Amino acid sequence: MKPSIKQTTLVAALALMLGACASKGPIIDTQGVDMSRYDQDLAQCETYASQVNTGEQAGKSAAAGGVLGAIFGAIVGDSSTVAKGAGVGAVAGGARGAAGGEREKDQVVKNCLRGRGYKVLN
User: Taking the model in full, what pTM does it have?
Assistant: First the structure.
């Protein structure tokens, strides 16, 4: 099923909102911290976090959401409702999966910094 212009626009808007909601980075206790060393460690930890495949998570969630939306559409309506339900479910699922991937990246960075001895506050 090809997504409509409305669905594509909604996905783009959700992606922008998720980007705006994304963490600005970890907050650490800077007492006694060599900030130039911290910047290097943070860059390395972010490199590790880039290995999280948010696209794959978004795709899997979109597929699952599409199936659930189609099932709901089949229960409450006709074939037109099935298609609409699948589209809405796919968009919502994809957004949820992308947000989960971003949270996982954020957690990887924080765990990495903690492992290097930093006191992460958030």
Answer: 0.55
